[in-house]
Amino acid sequence: MKIEVLTLFPAMFAGPLDESIVGRARTAGILELRIRDLRDWTHDRHRTVDDRPFGGGPGMVLKPEPLFEAVESLRGPRTKVILTGPAGRVFTQQIARELAGEEHLLFVCGSYEGYDERIREHLADDELSIGDYVLTNGALPAMVIIDAVTRLLPGALGDDLSATDESFTQGMLEYPHWTRPAEFRGWSVPEVLLSGNHAAIERWRREQSWRRTAERRPDLWERLRWQQPVRTVPNRPSAAKAGADIGAGSADAGKNI
Ligand SMILES: C[S@@+](CC[C@H](N)C(=O)[O-])C[C@H]1O[C@@H](n2cnc3c(N)ncnc32)[C@H](O)[C@@H]1O
């Protein structure tokens, strides 16, 4: 997959996208990443990309000319142009999966007060928000989305199954994990995980997943009940009874940890 980013702050991308899974995906040729400086598409001495808003008000607005010129020179027939902005669709794991199937993504990072509306209306294919808060510019949102998408590309994770067994993939939060030692400061690992009984472990983990989702994300739980055949999703337990209703594993099983 090819991902390009148009930004006023290319230096912000050094580091986060060079390390870990994204860094390895780039080295392995799974991801081709290009960070572009929007000012390279300006033609005046000051490399101007913004101007005052018509109608007055605080702040500056990104001008249409450099952005249209940049996007039109970079995009191909199968490019998806995505603006980052708080007014966009809220980014989810489902959207990450959709984007991972694309050939070429071109992210546009806003700055200042945002974009001239003609950019939104006539240049972008989509606009994504990473949550209900306002950041200084679109570099961090673009990096968040690129990270989530890259780890879904075939071969990016050491074990591709890791991505199918995670929070949000089945619409639920993931079950809790433990590792060695089996006992630490008197806190022990749930016995079922040491049993070697794979069917029991799988059942227990599914129950833990349900319980955690019911307790922490009732919104996800309700959505699941509408989407799944009724018999596969148990009734949502009240938070207080959750540990008793659905497989309490360890002494800490009912805690919000
Ligand atoms: C200061 S923000 C502009 C906020 C805008 N005036 C508003 O109230 O919606 C500047 C840029 O940061 C990026 N940005 C800020 N918060 C974001 C979020 N939650 N999700 C995605 N992008 C965001 C966008 O690219 C945006 O154009």
Description:
By secondary structure, the chain is of the alpha/beta class. It folds into 2 domains: 2-160, 3-Layer(aba) Sandwich (Alpha/beta knot); 165-245, Trp Operon Repressor, Chain A, CATH 1.10.1270.20. It is 30% helix and 16% strand. The protein has 8 helices and 9 strands. The chain has helices at residues 20-27, 64-74, 93-100, 117-122, 139-150, 198-216, 218-227, 242-245, and strands at 2-7, 32-37, 50-51, 61-62, 79-90, 104-109, 126-129, 183-184, 187-188. A 5-stranded parallel sheet has the order 2-1-6-5-7. The chain has a two-stranded antiparallel sheet with strand order 3-4. A two-stranded antiparallel ribbon has the order 8-9. α6 (198-216) crosses α7. Bound molecules: S-adenosylmethionine. Residues 84-87, 109-111, 113-114, 129-131, 133-138, 141 line the site of S-adenosylmethionine.
Indicate the proportion of strand residues: 15-25%
> Unreliable runs, pLDDT <50, ≥5 residues?
242-257
- What fraction, in percent, of the residue positions are helical? 25-40%
CATH class of the largest domain: Alpha Beta
The CATH superfamily label of the largest domain reads SPOUT methyltransferase, trefoil knot domain
Mean pLDDT: 91
Q: Write down the CATH topology of the largest domain.
A: Alpha/beta knot
- Give the names of the bound compounds: S-adenosylmethionine
Q: State the CATH architecture of the largest domain.
A: 3-Layer(aba) Sandwich
| Order of strands in the sheet with most strands | 2-1-6-5-7
**How many alpha or pi helices?**
8
Task: Report the order of strands and helices.
Answer: EHEEEHEHEHEHEEHHH
Q: Calculate Rg over CA atoms.
A: 23 Å
Identify the overall geometry.
elongated
Largest sheet: 5 strands, parallel
Number of strands: 9
Distance between the termini: 37 Å
Structural class: alpha/beta
Total domain units: 2
